[in-house]
Amino acid sequence: MRMSACTLRQWNATFEHELTHLYPREECRRFVSMLAEHYCKWSRTKQLTSADETLPPHANQQFGIILEGLKQARPIQHLIGEAWFMERPFSVSSDVLIPRPETEELVHHIVNDNQCPNPTILDIGTGSGCIAISLKMMIPHATVSAWDISEKALTLARENAQRHHCDVLFSRTDVLTQNPDKGEQYDIVVSNPPYICEQEKKLMHANVLKHEPHLALFVPDSDPLLFYRTIARLAQTILKPSGKLYFEINEAYGTETANMLTSMGYINIDILNDLQGKQRMLRAHRQP
């Protein structure tokens, strides 16, 4: 574990040398930048202008500790205990998925589409709570509820809500066994459910496979639309007429997911591309 006084430039060289068998060079440099922001509070500009400035002792120590964790393929977000989402820090652990940029795009679509000053919103499979909390903060008069099957995930989500002084109603719910309650009515239902097929494991990085919850990642190869079908069926009851359903989706099953929703009576179905041009989101409306 390296603890001697080093500059940011030296740490960049060290991370690249010791991690290039696991990560691309650009990713190694991104790790160093993240650590400089987290432990030194250095902006990107400060990092550029002070690359040859010796880091504070506590930062050097933490850089060394994090490097050892990265060499074991542990996600950097778990090592520092947080991930940034919608320009806000969220506490994360191995009990929840690490928030991804494409999920930020999903939140932006929901906020930009919304015409109601005080919508009721349900987030299914909330994990860290990043979607639910972000929507509440960006649509302050919304009433937001969030479900997850994992009590550990819900504990972390509640902590994140408290951290951001945000009022979200969290509840432990297994969507695969949940019976629809016609008394619950929402303007918006959103979900980033498990959608990676078991056969896709061989394409995934070790830091995801070893350290993120499989319960939130994988579906059987025999039924890749399991959660989409279940949630869409539930939303037929709990969505208000003309209410909107939003999904983050597996890019390999965009057309199949849209066709399934069409067969269930949903209308105005749009497959949405992420910034990389991949089909990663879907929006649909319940019949009026």
Automatic annotation (TrEMBL):
Keyword annotations for this protein, in alphabetical order, are: Methyltransferase, S-adenosyl-L-methionine, Transferase
Please name the GO terms of the biological process aspect recorded for this protein, alphabetically: methylation
The protein's name in its UniProt record? Release factor glutamine methyltransferase
Concerning its family, UniProt says: Belongs to the protein N5-glutamine methyltransferase family. PrmC subfamily.
GO MF terms here are: nucleic acid binding; peptide chain release factor N(5)-glutamine methyltransferase activity
Give the residues the record marks as binding S-adenosyl-L-methionine: 125-129, 148, 192
Tell me what reaction this enzyme catalyses. L-glutaminyl-[peptide chain release factor] + S-adenosyl-L-methionine = N(5)-methyl-L-glutaminyl-[peptide chain release factor] + S-adenosyl-L-homocysteine + H(+)
Q: Which residues form the Release factor glutamine methyltransferase N-terminal domain?
A: 30-81
The role this protein plays is: Methylates the class 1 translation termination release factors RF1/PrfA and RF2/PrfB on the glutamine residue of the universally conserved GGQ motif.
Task: Give its E.C. classification number.
Answer: 2.1.1.297
- CDD domains to which the protein is assigned, alphabetical: AdoMet_MTases
Q: What InterPro entries does the record tag this protein with?
A: DNA_methylase_N6_adenine_CS (IPR002052), HemK-like (IPR004556), N5-glutamine_MTase (IPR050320), PrmC_N (IPR040758), RF_methyltr_PrmC (IPR019874), SAM-dependent_MTases_sf (IPR029063), Small_mtfrase_dom (IPR007848)
Top-level enzyme category: transferase
Q: Which residues form the Methyltransferase small domain?
A: 106-203
The family database entries (Gene3D superfamilies) matched by this protein are listed as:
DNA helicase RuvA subunit, C-terminal domain (1.10.8.10), Vaccinia Virus protein VP39 (3.40.50.150)
This protein's source sits in the domain of life called Bacteria
Q: Indicate which residues the UniProt annotation says bind substrate.
A: 192-195
